[in-house]
Amino acid sequence: MHLSGCRAVITGPAKGMGAAITRAVAEAGANLVLAGRDTDAIAPVAAEMRALGRQAEIVACDVTRAEDVTALAASAEAGGAVDILITVAGGRGPLGKTGVETTEAEFEEILRLNTTAIFLLMRAFAPGMIERGGGRIVNIGGTFGLRGRAGRAAYSASKWGMRGLTKSFALELGPHNINVNSVCPGMVEGPRFDTVCAELAARLGISVEEARRRHAEDYAMRRVSTADDVAHAVVFLASDKARQITGQDLAVDGGWVI
Fold first, then answer.
1. Confidence class of residue 235 from pLDDT cuts 50, 70 and 90?
2. Which of 33, 68, 108, 154 is exposed most, by the fewest CB atoms within 10 A?
3. Interior CA angle at 21 toward 75 and 88, to 5°?
4. Sequence ranges of the domains in the chain
């Protein structure tokens, strides 16, 4: 699964899963345009990618702002054709709140970040891919967009909406040789999972280790995914190995949603 000679735009590349995806895409041979609000956080990742021999341009971009996304596309394409768009940037929304308890502002904020931003990004980059006769788009969803979840109404709605956008764009862009898919991680090892386990442990009066074990038991594989597990799936869908796959949701969750 090589991406040699490709140019990839990645949003949210600085931390955790985003950094792992960025590294995997670079190791597969692609040059990079790394976009996000906190450019200082992106700088060390970009430096690491340059040390691998890849180009790594940094562009400041708030993906929820249409004007920023338009400027990102213009800047990225001025440096060369964009072959791959990977939309990692997103948020988790309110935790542990029922739909009744969720405020309108909380609901709209997470939809703006997890759904509208994906629309803005695909809308901005699709014309260039159409003009060149091909491309790959990989959106990062989540398993709560495949299966409802009590206490996560806003987040779940945002990821279900992202899946709808992915499928609609896949149908519209398929005739132009553009694949559009989503990778849907379950829980992923890292600081966010550590926080979830600590919160569960405090709520149930159990140890953090026990909380981690209970999470793992929910999965067929009896283990929690790593950021690299997600990154490998992204590289596959961005490569020619997935040339005949589009409009699909690839769950990387150790068998939680089955």
1. very high
2. 108
3. 60
4. 7-186+227-252, 190-224
